[in-house]
Amino acid sequence: MKFADLGLSEELLSAVHDAGYTEPTPIQAEAIPQVQMMRDLIAVAQTGTGKTASFVLPMIDILAEGRRRMRMPRSLILEPTRELAAQVAENFEKYGKNHDLKLALLIGGVQMGDQVKALDEGVDVLIATPGRLMDLFERGKILLTGCELLVIDEADRMLDMGFIPDIEEICSKLPEQRQTLLFSATMPPPIKKLADKFLSNPKAIEVARPASTNVNIQQYKVLCTNRQKREALRYFLNNDDVQTAIVFANRKTTVRDLSKDLEKAGFAAGQIQGDMDQASRNKELARFKAGEITVLVASDVAARGLDVKDVSHVFNYDTPWHPDDYVHRVGRTGRAGAKGRAFTFVTPEDAEAIANVEKLTNQKIEVFKVSGGGSKQDDARGEEPKDDKPAHKARRGGKSRDDAAKPERDDRSPKGGRGKPATDEKPAADEKPAKSHKPASKGRKPREDSEPKAKAGEWEGPRPSFLDHSAT
Length: 472
Known about the structure:
By secondary structure, the protein is α/β, with parallel strands linked by helices. The chain folds into 2 domains: 3-206, Rossmann fold (3-Layer(aba) Sandwich), CATH 3.40.50; 217-468, Rossmann fold (3-Layer(aba) Sandwich). The chain has helices at 10-18, 26-36, 51-62, 82-95, 112-121, 130-138, 155-160, 164-172, 189-198, 229-239, 252-264, 278-290, 324-330, 351-361, and strands at 41-44, 75-78, 103-106, 125-128, 149-152, 179-184, 203-206, 217-223, 245-248, 269-272, 295-298, 313-316, 340-346, 366-369, 395-396. Helix 3 (51-62) crosses helix 4 (82-95). The chain is globular. Mean pLDDT is 79; it is low at 371-458.
């Protein structure tokens, strides 16, 4: 199937062609016709499948006819994070370049003045985080009675961040006669309840099993102790043919410390976490996309929706607290049909968390195996450590992207949210840099004299020294 077969306008097809796309992804092929028919829609698709374009493209054609009115947006797209909202805005600008559509971006971390000015001039598409939208609504700066189309994107992330009460309040202020589209990577019961309440006879689309991970991603878990994590990370960055990597940590303090540690070790590293202002976060993300930095250390503020091409590796430095976050973290690699590798560092204390991940994804994550080092080769294949025994050896195995960092809200504390405030984060007591067995390399590719690339069976190079550390 081609995009031309979906009934999109010639102007829109031209923009899609200029962007380099000719064939829709499965979610796009199924969702676009339903949106064009003005049906309510529930779409469940794993991250990286192109679901943003599946609502952006038909919305552009639907909104091509109509008149803008002051402070009354014609459509509303709700996103859980600033980065996701900005990315959707980029999609509208890219695909809507041949249409006269005006959009406004309402996110926290920036001045309200320009946002209010844009609303006063009238907008066709309003892309917003729930917190900032509610702030402006309560100030009387926006009216929602003219909204004809609502998109709730990353609904399961909204749930994790405590936005569901805000979304219910927003929906209650919208016209009853509207089209509502709900997109989510998973479908937990609270999201199903939300859909039943606010969607009318929706068409359900599922292009991947809920909470499944991309088959193009090799997933492994690395058994280690907290003290071994940093050396293990350096080891893989030096030896696994890492082109670009995102390293996820659960705490903002860990993100800051780890980024500085990698920079001192010679890596081109940067960071994104909730304590940074929006301009700094945008700058770091732009540097990562441009290749100025090759390792981005991030909290879960970056786990969902960020579309960065050619991310070869994802490292879950911390096992996620919430199993859903594993799917989204790992989904930062292996995008658009590319191959990717994901490693999750699992300590004995993480036994329950990793078990929850494997239960959610319905798959056993392979343990990363390491061979080499003479007589210790056989020892590297030992069993996984029990909860009361630290891991001395790592096997080859893969974990996924769920380093479920504590949810970080954009603007306001959640109403009845499940996540703990990000400001309560505390660094792990035993989180200290471990000595590396060799100098860290800098850049995208390993040095010529570094160990060979790891294969999907077992490690072929020398035994990494972090496996020999005794637990403390």
